[in-house]
């Protein structure tokens, strides 16, 4: 039967374990340097320094259902959450009176919009006076393939703006 000799004595191993325990206790303790490695796994991550970002972040941390932390750009997050921002042209023609609503209505076709979506319309500065003059309502109504805009009167000229859908 062969015997194997350990490279360290029991006392040397105990001394190394004690040094490791002193360097980083199993409960509590403070790292005093950088940690480098591929994975760090734990339950909580807390920053204690005031590290508020003063500029628009190029990437934002997100957590998946398994607990892994990844980064996404603001544009990716908008897409993940279903936000779509687009320019929109609103012609002065094609408005019809809607007796149920008691005002004029114009359908704006957009294949990316569904009836479940919310559509927020923001007019360009050049279109604000036209929108105010015809009494554009602050509500839109989405349908599969577009959305409706409402006004007290037909606008005197075409308008333009940006829509945010979600």
Write the layout of secondary structure elements.
Layout: H1 10-23, E1 60-63, E2 69-72, H2 74-80, E3 84-90, E4 96-98, E5 103-109, E6 119-123, H3 125-134, E7 136-143, E8 146-151, E9 159-165
Antiparallel strand pairs: 1-2, 3-9, 4-5, 5-8, 6-9, 7-8
What does this entry look like structurally?
The chain has 166 residues and is of the alpha+beta class. The protein is built from three helices and nine strands, in the order H-E-E-H-E-E-E-E-H-E-E-E. The chain has a four-stranded antiparallel beta sheet with strand order 4-5-8-7. The protein has a three-stranded antiparallel beta sheet with strand order 3-9-6. A hairpin with a 2-residue loop joins strand 7 and strand 8 (146-151). The longest helix has 14 residues, at 10-23. The radius of gyration is 31 Å and the shape is rod-shaped. The model has no long low-confidence stretch (mean pLDDT 88).
Task: Give me a quick take on this structure.
This protein is an alpha+beta fold and 166 residues long.
């Amino acid at each position: 039967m062969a015997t194997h000799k350990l490279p360290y004595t029991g006392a040397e191993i105990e001394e190394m374990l004690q040094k490791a325990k002193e360097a980083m206790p199993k409960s509590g303790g403070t790292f005093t340097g950088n940690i480098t490695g591929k994975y760090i796994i734990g339950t909580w991550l807390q920053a204690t320094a005031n590290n508020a970002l003063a500029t628009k972040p190029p990437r934002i941390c997100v957590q998946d259902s398994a607990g892994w932390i990844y980064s996404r750009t603001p544009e990716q997050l908008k897409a993940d959450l279903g936000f779509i921002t687009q320019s929109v042209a609103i012609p002065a023609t094609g408005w019809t009176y809607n007796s149920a609503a008691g005002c004029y209505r114009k359908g704006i076709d957009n294949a990316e919009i569904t009836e479940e979506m919310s559509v927020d319309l923001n007019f360009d500065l050049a279109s604000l006076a036209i929108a105010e003059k015809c009494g554009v309502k602050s509500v839109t109504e989405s349908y599969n393939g577009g959305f409706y805009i409402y006004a007290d009167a037909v606008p005197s000229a075409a308008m333009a703006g940006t829509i945010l859908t979600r």
